[in-house]
Design brief:
The chain has about 450 residues and is mostly helical. The chain is built from 20 helices and no strands. Helices cover about 80% and strands about 0% of the residues. It has one domain: Up-down Bundle (Growth Hormone, Chain: A). The protein is globular and about 65 Å long. Helix 10 packs across helix 17.
Length: about 450
């Protein structure tokens, strides 16, 4: 009788293959998000008098693209703890490729509307919830413990690198019809929009990611000794494990505040670039698409620098809450600078500073949870943590969209950044903060 093939050992090289290909799909996703914003701003609601309609449309697409991702995360985490994470990643990539291809077809046939775009983005986000749950909980399977900090730094770098490169690629793809009419690219000059090209690039990135996952082998997941009779039981257990530990809920509340206050900047950036920076863009002969791509890319560059630093450093070994909350203070300061700016340079500097600290924030948070959570509960705990913290993002998005129809968007962004920086600084100066990490470990051990 032949023996079953030995399970592959933990390997940073295997993780790097998975990381690079999943980063490619993430890159494609940023291209689609950027293209959707351009479609809404330039094609759907191009007039200055349509600011309220554009704010509502940006809110709808942002909520549609995040709400299912967040609210299905706990179920997806329980599902990932019960099933083969490699197969989950493969299925999620295939479904996302098909949905993005549908966006191409809808736009190409002139049937893309705000509401069917929102429906496709919601399905896209649902697939993303299962992808995130499986991928986030695969680190411990693939990466040796000594390389865990560097692996989280690499993941943060991939997010930021996508922000740097995706806007430039999306802007180029969207500009293809104009280039064709100028005779600079060999395409029919009758093309009316380049948005479908951006969607198509995203679909291809998911296909490449799916092929890579299909060829990789994962080490087996640790046994789930607390596995219940159903995925709903396991989902409830993930909530229960965190709910019984108040220090963990307190830690999550910081992430919730960051998501709530960062939502206005992410939602209203297209409006800020189009209206707040219009005079400076005109002085520098920058088109709207070019200015939006430039500011997004410089924002992402901050994340790349921060991610590379985290990869080289590996993060704090102790007192990680200081790395997490200290990063939030500077993130808020960067957002405040961006909100108050009227020039492309100052706006980009604020964005660069804000995004520079995101890798430190997310990496220290992940490392804390990795060390606090039993292996059999890891996917569920990480997913519930993301659900609670990221639920604040759509709430912040909807409130920001409502406020933007009544007040100046720059004022909303600036106030949100100031609140985040001031609150986190006050918490770090409080006497109880110095004992928070010890209380977290004590609570998790009980």
């Amino acid at each position: 009788m032949s023996e079953a093939p030995a399970a592959p050992p933990r390997s940073l090289a295997t993780f790097l293959v998975l990381w690079s290909t999943q980063t490619l799909s993430l890159f494609g996703s940023f291209v689609t998000q950027f293209a959707i914003n351009i479609w809404l701003t330039i094609e759907k609601y191009p007039l200055p008098g349509q600011r309220s309609e554009l704010a509502l449309a940006l809110t709808v697409t942002t909520v549609a693209g995040t709400l299912p991702l967040i609210f299905f995360m706990p179920v997806a985490g329980a599902f990932a703890d019960r099933h083969d994470r490699r197969r989950i990643l493969l299925a999620a990539n295939v479904v996302s490729a098909l949905l993005t291809a549908l966006l191409v077809a809808l736009h190409a046939t002139h049937t893309l509307t705000l509401w069917n775009a929102a429906a496709v983005l919601a399905g896209y986000a649902l697939a993303g919830s299962f992808h995130s749950a499986a991928f986030d909980s695969s680190y411990a399977l693939l990466v040796p413990e000594r390389h865990m900090g560097r692996a989280t730094g690499l993941m943060q770098t991939s997010f930021a690198l996508s922000q740097v490169l995706a806007p430039a690629l999306a802007a180029t793809l969207v500009a293809l019809p104009a280039l064709a009419r100028a005779g600079r690219v060999p395409l029919p000059p009758t093309l009316s929009s380049g948005v479908p090209f951006a969607f198509a690039a995203d679909a291809l990135s998911f296909v490449a990611a799916a092929v890579a996952v299909a060829l990789l082998r994962f080490p087996p997941a640790p046994p789930n000794e607390s596995r219940g009779a159903s995925v709903w039981h396991d989902t409830a257990e993930g909530f229960s494990w965190i709910a019984r530990r108040p220090p963990l809920l307190w830690l999550i509340s910081f992430g919730g505040l960051a998501n709530f206050t960062f939502a206005p900047l992410m939602l209203l950036m297209p409006l800020l670039v189009r209206d707040r920076l219009a005079a400076d863009c005109a002085r520098h002969h920058l088109s709207y698409e070019g200015a939006l791509a430039l500011t997004n890319s410089l924002m992402g560059l901050g994340g790349v620098v921060g991610g590379i630093a985290m990869t080289a450093w590996g993060g704090l070994k102790t007192r990680r809450v200081y790395g997490m909350i200290g990063a939030m203070v500077l993130l808020g300061v960067g957002q405040l600078v961006a909100g108050l700016s009227t020039s492309v340079v100052a706006f980009s500097a604020g964005l660069f500073l804000a995004e520079l600290l995101v890798p430190a924030l997310n990496s220290h948070s992940f490392l804390l949870w990795q060390g606090l959570t039993p292996p059999g509960l890891l996917a569920r705990a990480l997913s519930v943590r993301r659900f609670i913290a990221q639920s604040a993002f759509p709430v912040g998005t909807m409130i920001s969209g409502w406020l933007a129809a009544r007040f100046e968007p720059w004022l909303i962004v600036s106030c949100a950044g100031a609140i985040l920086a001031a609150w986190c600084a006050a918490q770090m100066l409080s006497p109880s903060f110095s004992t928070l990490e010890a209380r977290l470990h004590e609570s998790a051990a009980n």
